[in-house]
Amino acid sequence: RPSSINSRLLSGIMAEEMELVVTEVERIPEIVAQVRAGFRTRKTLPREFREQQLRSLLRMLSENETQICEALWHDLHKGEMESVVMEANLLRTEIIYHLNHLEKWMAPEYVEADLLNKLNSLYIHPEPFGVVLNIAPWNYPFQLCILPIIGAIAAGNAVILKPSEIAVATSNLVAELIPKYLDNECYAVVTGGIEVSQALLKERYDYLFYTGGTAVGKIIMKHAAEHLTPVTLELGGKSPCIVLDDANIAVAGRRIAWGKWLNSGQTCIAPDYILCTPRNKDKLMEALKAATVEFYGENPKDSKDYGRIVNARHFKRVTSLLQSSSATVFYGGDTDADMRYISPTLLSDVSPDDVIMKEEIFGPLLPVVTVEDVDQAIEFVNEREKALAFYVFTESKKNFERIRNQTFAGGVCHNDTMMHVSPPTLPFGGVGNSGCGAYHGKYSFDTFTHRKSVLSTGTGLEALNQIRYPPFSKTKLARIRWLLSPSERKRAWPGRLLLLFLLLAILAVILQVFGLPRWVYRL
Questions:
Q1: Residue 15: its pLDDT value, please?
Q2: Residues with Cβ within 8 Å of residue 520, at least 6 apart in sequence
Q3: Which one of 241, 268, 413, 436 is the catalytic residue?
Q4: How far, in Å, are 80, 111, 188, 464 from residue 114 at the CA level?
Q5: What's the angle, vertex CA 506, arms to CA 505 and CA 512, rounded to 5?
Q6: Is 65 helix (H, G, I), strand (E, B) or coil?
C-alpha cells in the first residue's frame, strides 16, 4: 500500500533510478496515422462509445491506485494523501461529472431565430475536432496526463498522449495502462524526450493541448501555426498574493502556506510571491512560519507529507535562485542535493528587482515584498505579465472587487489559494503570457468540440424567396432593408408587427395558390 511509500520517505531511502520507456522516433508517423484512421472509422462518435471509454478510465484509476501512488512517490515523493486527493480522486470527480452531463452536452443546441429565419430551424451541432495531441507536464504527471483527455474523449476525439519524460515512473505507468483500458485504434501513448517531442510536432493534428512553461508554449504555438491547428496552452507565471491590512492573518498564513508548499512548490498556480504592507508583514511572516511547522513539523525533511524537487537539474535551478537572491532568509533555507530536498523557505526584505522576482520560482521559496497600500500593490501587479492565478486576502468585499476589476489574471481566489480550480463549473486557464484557452468540466468538452452551425429549412413557400433572387430592384432592396433592420429589445413591438405581417403574407400566398377552402363557400 502507499503507506509503505511514506515509511520509506521517512527513513530517507531514495527510490532506485528507473529507465524511461522511449517510443522509437521512426514509429511516430505510423502511430499518428493509425490513430487518425481509428477516428475516421467514426467509432468515437456515438455516446455509448465515449461513455464506455470514460468508464474504462474510472476502472483504471480504481484498479491501479497503488501503482499510481508508487509512481508519484518515485518521481516527486508525493505522499498517499496528496497522490490520491490531488491526482487520482480529482480525475474520478471529473470523469463522473462528464458521464452525468454528456448526453445533455451532445444534444443539438437550438438558438433563437431572427425575423428572416422564423420558418427555419437553427441549431448548433457539437462535433469533435479529430485527432488531439496532449503534451503533459511533470509536476502533476498523472493528473495532467489524463485530465485534458477526459474532455477530448467525451467530445468524441481520438487522442495521442505524451507524458513528461522528467517524471519517469509516471510516464512508464501511463504507457503501460492506457493500452490496457482504452481502445487501441483511437488512443495511443508516445513516450520519450526532446527528440520524440520534436518528431511528434512534425505531424499534423486537429487540436494541440500543452501544459508547461511559456518558452516551450511558444514553440508549440509556432508548430500549430504551420497547420492552422487550434491550441490550448496552460502555462504559468508569477502568481501574486496580496494580503491587505484588514486580512485575517492567521487564516491567510495557513492557506498561503498550504498552497505554496504543496508538491514542494511545484504547482503552476502556487502563490509565487506575497505583497503586503510594512504594518502587517511581521504578523504575516510569523503566521506563515507557524502554519509551516504545524503542517510539516520542526524538520520538514522528516515529514511524510512534504515532497521533493523532481530532478537534479531543477534542484540546481531553485537553489541557484536562493543563493543569488539578496533577500533575507526568515525561515528555512535548508537543502540536500542527494535527497533533492529544499525546505519551505520564507524570504524577507525582497527588492522588486531581486533575481527571485524575475522568473517563476516553481519551488518552495516564498518572497514577501512590501508595498505601502492597495494602489501600489495593484500597480506592482499590472507592471508585470498577466498571471495564471491571483490571490487576495482581505475582509473587505469592496477592496477585493476593486483589485479584481483593476488587475488581470487567468483566475482569482478571494481569501484562499488554489481552490478556484476545484469546481468543475469554473473554467481553468491563463491569459496573455500565462496561456490561452480553458478547460475543466463543461469547458473541457467545449474546448475539444467544434460548434457546427446548422440551418435546416423546407422547400415549400418558394415564392417568399423571390425577394433575394435576381433580377434586383429598388423595391426589393427596400423590402430587404425593412426585413433585416434590427430593433432594440425595448422597442420589440415593431419586430412582432413585422412577424404578424410576414405570417399574413404567407397566408396570402397560400390563398393565392390554393384558393379558399370549400367550406367557406358553403357559408
A1: 43
A2: none
A3: 268
A4: 57, 10, 45, 16
A5: 90
A6: helix
Cell 501512488, located at residue: 69
Cβ neighbours of 356 (radius 10 Å): 23
Inter-helix orientation angle 168-181/65-76, to 10°: 160
State the cell numbers at 400.
477585493
Buried b (16+ CB within 10 A) or exposed e, 109-148: eeeeeebeeeeeebeeebebbbbbbbbbbbbbbbbbbbbb
Is residue 51 annotated as a catalytic residue, yes or no? no
26 is catalytic: no
What is the C-alpha separation between 273 and 351, in angstroms, rounded?
12
**Which residues are registered as beta bridge partners of 233?**
210, 436
Q: Are the beta carbons of 158 and 184 closer than 8 angstroms? A: no
Q: Which of 366, 346, 418 is nearest to 388 (CA)?
A: 418
Q: What is the pLDDT of residue 499?
A: 66
Sign of CA dihedral 275, 423, 307, 22: negative
Question: For residue 414, what are the contacts with CB-CB under 8 A and spacing of at least 6?
Answer: 392, 393, 394, 400, 404
Give me the count of residues in the chain. 523
3-state secondary structure of 384: coil
Written as nine digits, the cell of 450 is 467544434
In this predicted structure, what is the pLDDT of residue 5?
43
3-state secondary structure of 273: strand
How far apart are the C-alpha atoms of 232 and 209, rounded to whole Å?
5
DSSP per-residue string spanning 157-222: -EEEEE--SSSHHHHHHHHHHHHHHS-TTTEEE---SHHHHHHHHTS--SEEEEES-HHHHHHHHH
Low-confidence stretches of the chain (pLDDT beneath 70): 1-16, 487-500, 511-523
Residues 162 and 191 sit within 8 Å (Cβ to Cβ): yes
Give me the DSSP letters along 425-488. TS-B---GGGEE--BSTHHHHHHTEEEEEEEE--S--GGGGGGGSSSP-HHHHHHHHHHH----
d(CA 134, CA 155): 14
Between CA 270 and CA 419, with CA 76 as vertex, the angle to 5 degrees is: 30
In the beta sheet, which residues pair with residue 276? 243, 370
152: closest CA among 95, 202, 196? 95
β-bridge mates for residue 127, sequence order: 450
Question: What is the model's pLDDT at position 491?
Answer: 52
Strand partners, 208: 133, 231
- 313 three-class SS: helix
**Catalytic residue (one of 87, 234, 276, 360):** 234
Grid look-up 498552497 returns 259
CB 136, CB 163: distance < 8 Å:
yes
Eight-class DSSP state of 358: S
Q: Answer whether 420's CB lies under 8 Å from 412's CB.
A: yes
What was the pLDDT predicted at 489? Answer: 63
